[in-house]
Design a protein that fits this description.
Elements (H helix, E strand, L loop, with lengths): L1 H4 L7 E2 L2 H4 L9 H4 L11 H13 L4 E2 L8 H4 L21 H10 L6 H15 L17 E11 L18 E11 L2 E5 L2 E2 L10
Parallel strand pairs: 1-2
Antiparallel strand pairs: 3-4, 4-5, 5-6
């Protein structure tokens, strides 16, 4: 905020792990704690409160993931007693980032719908120079849309994820709201939660 007030073109982002995971998770037994090793490390509830305030008030521009698609055995170096210095830093997060913010930000009333869309779509399109093609619903803009069931209650777990991962630090966490259909350039690529896209459909932008 201070940099922006001075006219600096500063951009701030945060990720779900900095609001939903905490320093206490690292106090678990070694193998369990390894699921929470990422950089910077998880912080205190006071830090969570500060980040929520910045998300709400506009001090943070982007809601990111820092997605690291490890198999857990690779993350801990296939050790039965992994240590902090030998455990690979990073966690999977790309599929859980939007449901977590939808459930705990939008549905709780912390965030308005406009603010949710800014954090998850519009700001990124603008910052990366794609506002004429991405990030909004308008004539001439790519029809990249996610259709949500805002009342669906479900449990996060690695078996429901589609990345090359076999763990999630959010295992067993219940959330409300789930994208059920996804369109890219107007073409359904996910329908009823199932992938429909063929290899090669994606494009570099």
């Amino acid at each position: 905020d201070r940099a922006k007030a001075r006219g600096v073109d500063a951009i701030a982002e945060t990720c779900p792990q900095y609001l939903f995971l905490g320093a206490a998770d690292l106090d678990r037994p070694a193998v369990d704690a390894a699921r929470f090793v990422f950089s910077p490390p998880p912080r205190s509830p006071r830090s969570h409160e500060h980040l929520w305030r910045e998300l709400i008030e506009g001090g943070i521009d982007l809601w990111s993931s820092d997605h690291s698609p490890y198999y857990f055995a690779d993350k801990i170096g296939r050790s039965e007693t992994p240590g902090f210095t030998t455990t690979l830093s990073g966690i999977p997060g790309i599929e859980t980032r939007l449901p977590l913010l939808f459930s705990e930000g939008l549905l709780t009333g912390r965030l308005t719908l406009e603010r949710y869309l800014d954090l998850t779509s519009r700001n990124a399109a603008s910052i990366y120079g794609f506002a004429n093609r991405k990030g909004r619903i308008a004539i001439g803009v790519d029809a990249d849309l996610a259709l949500w069931d805002p009342t669906m209650r479900w449990t996060l777990g690695h078996e429901a994820l589609h990345s090359r991962v076999d763990f999630t630090p959010y295992e067993g966490r219940s959330v409300t709201g789930k994208p059920t259909t996804v369109l890219v350039r107007g073409v359904p690529v996910v329908a009823d939660g199932e992938l429909q896209a063929e290899p090669g459909f994606g494009r570099f932008v």
